[in-house]
Specification:
The chain is an alpha+beta fold. Helices cover 24% and strands 21% of the residues. Strands 1-2-3-4-5 form a 5-stranded mixed beta sheet.
């Protein structure tokens, strides 16, 4: 597949000449994930807005005005970063676009200096190993947090401990 016409965009609300997250069409993000990611079927546009507002950078791929690829990261900018939600539309897979998305995130200034980059993936370990990621047995814990409404929280202070 000839992908020379595919455009890459980086979204970063902190300037550096990148597009701003509010310029990203959240409806297209939701549509892409509903088509390509079994694990993101129930995400709403409002939830995407929150996730993306807290992500830096966000890398996308476009075929004209159609969103066909997506990846995002969160990072403290020095010690740790995590790459999330890497997807490429089925019609465009196998052309190196997923690698381009991951490399775009890895080379972003908010990610490229961290000591360790983690990656969240369900079934694509071999793909990421070809890029240079290795399986990590030392950080396998997860907390499936339940959403707590702010008014349900009890007030506490350090003095009460």
């Amino acid at each position: 597949m000839d992908c020379r016409h595919i455009q890459a965009r980086v979204y970063d609300d902190r300037g550096q000449g990148h597009a701003l997250v509010q310029d990203l069409d959240l409806q297209q993000v939701q549509t892409l994930f509903r088509h390509t990611a079994f694990w993101a079927q129930d995400r709403s546009v409002d939830e995407w807005a929150i996730a993306l507002a807290n992500s830096r950078p966000i890398a996308t791929l476009w075929d004209s005005d159609r969103l066909i690829g997506f990846a995002r990261a969160t990072s403290d900018g020095i010690y740790r970063a995590t790459i999330w939600d890497v997807v490429v539309h089925d019609d465009y897979q196998g052309a190196g676009l997923g690698r381009k998305l991951v490399e775009t995130v890895l080379t972003h200034p908010h990610v490229n200096r961290v000591e360790r980059v983690y990656l969240m993936t369900t079934h694509q370990q071999q793909f990421y190993e070809r890029i240079g990621f290795a399986e990590n047995q030392t950080t396998t814990m997860v907390l499936h947090n339940q959403r707590i409404e702010a008014d349900a929280l009890t007030a506490w202070s350090l003095e009460s401990l």
